[in-house]
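queue> holo job accepted (manganese (II) ion)
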Amino acid sequence: MDVSILIKEIKTYRELSAEEYVLLQRAYSFSKDAHSAQKRKSGEPYFSHVFQTALIIAKWRLDLPTIIAGLFHDTVEDTEKTITDIKKEFGDEVAFLVDGVTKISHIKYRGNTDQVETLKKMILAIGEDIRVVFVKLADRLHNMKTLSAIPVQKQRRIALETWEIYAPLAMRLGMSNISGELEDLAFPFLYPDEYVWLKNHVQEQYASRQAYLTRIESILKQELEKNTIPFVRIDTRAKRLASLYKKLLRYDMNVEGIHDLVAMRIIVPTVADCYAVLGIIHQLWPPLPGRIKDYIALPKPNGYKSLHTTVFCLENKPTEFQIRTQEIHEEAENGIAAYWAYHQGKGTKQYQKGQTIFAKQRDMEWIAQLKNWQKECANSEEFVNSMRIDFFKDRIFVITPTGEAIDLPLGATPVDFAYAIHSDVGDHCVGARVNGRMVALDHLLQSGDVIEITTQKNKKPSTSWMEFIKSSKAKKKIKVALKRLGLRDDHIPKMTEFKITYHDRVGILNDITAAIARMKINIVNVQFSPKNKNLMLIVCEVNEKEKTEKLVLKIKDVKGVKDISWTLGKN
Ligand code: MN
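queue> job finished
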């Protein structure tokens, strides 16, 4: 866990300037100090988790701000340090990344499959910058590797979330290696019996296939040398357990029917060499019809490129070969992370000058890949939804206190959120907390906000809400409710604004709003003065002088209320 390990890893792919060196040292000490009091369930210092996360990011060859964000990814959530501290010490870019990861960490998947697509998109939308998603994936990878260090009651939920959300997300980003690793780590926690069965049934198969491929390897090598086709290396790749399991489900659990249990992979210098090798293989052994796949000419939607062929090999055994270049190979393993690693040079220099380089450029390849993802949906029922959820432009994703994701149109307010939860919650909402802070009902929500709604039994929807709500669902429901109350939605009554000074105590807001509700007066908005924490503004639908004065007396009776003034007839 020494900073030198991290530095050594970074130096395998780039030089560190003197300033960067100092910066990294500072970040290391900052994180270590911040997490010093924390221990994991295993007794290990918590810092080891954030350090290993940063090390994984360095292994993916990402830039320095992302590595530093890895060191801080749990700091805001778990320690005394705030995002402002990080901003002050390490600048906007690192703070931006850390803030994104913190927001993503509020999302929790609890097995509701309807939510899977929304959650994946939400993670990308909140991330805004793809590097945020990289940090989250590195964090998840380390958590999965050390799942026993996490409380037992959380293990299954985390494994399920990994299986349903993060592994497929990594796959979408073309990070097939990470995706496969995440699945393999989650598999025994989710399917313990199947895991044991598989281990017992395929162990031998793996070993004999491996021995078989070693024989083929020497034949192939000779043939390539004879034809002077250069190759970087030939290796074998055993199919991952989790992916084997999924495939076996489609093959009646018959291991014999799986041709790529162990596949041979040939890495060559150029794309032309790939096709040359394919020719040689087909000269040696006859191909299985329909099993030649040219993903170089026609890459998979997630960007995967490779030539695949299955041939009747020695002893007539169907055997799969994968042929690709070194660069293609790295991209296939690490996907967008690899792409990022290749193209990050400039950003680092800008970072030294203290400028921010948020990777929002629409022209980046990953955006193209995400578009493919949407295109893919065109074949399924999800098409309509995915058109609606344009996750980069006009939708935002917010979170309930229990971690459920809610998608709303851009410009949505707490009232839209309340109606998205349930029409009862919408009809009776009086106030909202966003990220723990009280806000007005017309407050503009942002992706990643955690929202809590306060309701009051006697509260009715207000016609004035129609002016600021965004979602058609809320509009429709408010109209229905207003009609029921005999109000027209274009009838906007006069309002009165009350300024109340008070001594803070638990439950004071509740007592005040209850007093108002008892008089059958509608509350339109509750707001706390940002400058004076003992001042709140409440706007009510009340116009008559007499009724207003009576209400003032009632509010004055509430314990803790010091003073109240009002402006009649506000509209
Ligand atoms: Mn973490």
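queue> The chain has three domains: 3-175, 192-331, 397-570.
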